[in-house]
Task: structure prediction
Amino acid sequence: MSDQDLKEINELRKVRLEKLQELRDLEIDPFGTRFDRDTMAQDIIDNFDRLVDTKVMVAGRIMSKRRHGKAGFANLQDYSGIIQLYVRKDDIGDENYELFKKLDIGDILGIEGQVFRTQKGEISIHVAKLTYLSKSLNPLPEKWHGLKDVELRYRQRYVDLIVNPEVKETFIKRSQIIKEMRAYLDNKGFLEVETPMMQPIAGGAAARPFVTYHNALDMDLFLRIAPELYLKRLIVGGLEKVYEINRNFRNEGISTRHNPEFTMLELYQAYADYEVMMELMEDLISTVMLKVNGSTKGEFEGVEIDFAPPWRRITMLDAIKEYTGLDFNEINSDEEAYKAVKDMAIKVEEGYSRGEIINEVFEAYVEDKLIQPTFVYGHPVEISPLAKKNRDNPQYTDRFEVFIMQREIANAFSELNDPLDQKERFLKQVEKRASGDAEAHMMDEDYINALSYGMPPAGGLGIGIDRIVMLMTNSPSIRDVILFPTLRPREL
Result:
């Protein structure tokens, strides 16, 4: 924001502060109390034939105002929409009309009046009385979309929501998406649960955690990177179908696809496997898409996406072969894998396992080719420490990821329920952590203990809510679907 802009804003604020004092001098409270409104703006528009000539009480923010001598018009915006106000001095009296004259754009009012239609045909309220509910001291931006600093919209989301109706609609739709997900899972017999946000061991994903300290217990705690290990403890305990929709925290980079705190849906079903999770995933998302948007097809950044089942299914190795020509079925050792990719544009160091190299090639050469909903399955065991090995080929796991528009949307697998195998894999992760991999899993002895009581075969699924909302609302940045995204601090 330029110095000239700041100067103009300060001048406008000074004028508003003077108006504030004028109201107080008139013994009018500029920050009022309860107002018992009985009608919303959109209700009046939708039900005009029933409400015409009826007295209503509405409340909201003044978004525009124009006066013509002893009469004037204003637009009042509430949660539902905008309604026009018609104010005439002869009808409301000198005192109320003086209040109307002092109104600033952004002021919040309570209005009593009668529903009617103007000569130009616009549905309006003929105002009989107005009540100040909150004086706006800061001027609203006149050309919000024209701001060069787009981050200001994220930093001052409260203003963004006031002046950009489409932003409000995005977050209303986000709420509807989550509501429909809950309804779907509840109807399938899943139980919604809550697990700890602060954990003594950061587990359930490969990510760098945030660390905090608990004074009374004199110990470090980690903001959870995933609820997985706690949810699977519940499967051990006999809660056979559970889910949680809540925040995860990962101390990683920020981009249009990543925010340090984000919302995940994780669910687990006893006696199921990754193929059951595939069917559940595509049915859940297509059902929610249809309920919220009225169609299983939608547009994202100019591309039509079809969420209707069945979605494409391809193994990770077949996808690599399709897009690079490299056939890892013919590459059987770590050394061969390293030699095969040494000239490719990926960061692979000596000591990487064949499975880790496969993953690096996939991320670099395949992910950005996956546009329509696609299940990629058959991940190497080295990068899947919590997934069950494939019976036919134990080098790989019964795991899948879902990709849509070049983005990973979900991760799922047949859950590893062998405590001995799980401990062995944890120990390998501990070795990696000791070698400097801050994202490697920690050893979780209590989880091993839980598995030792017996966990039934189970399928698990994690879905990134923010990325699904991005797709269903055609929002290019994750910041567009998180009300208050994490940003570097900056002076107002």
Observations:
- The chain is about 35% helix and 25% strand.
- The two ends are 10 Å apart (CA to CA).
- The first strand starts at residue 55 and ends at 68.
- Residues 236 and 455 are 5 Å apart (CA to CA).
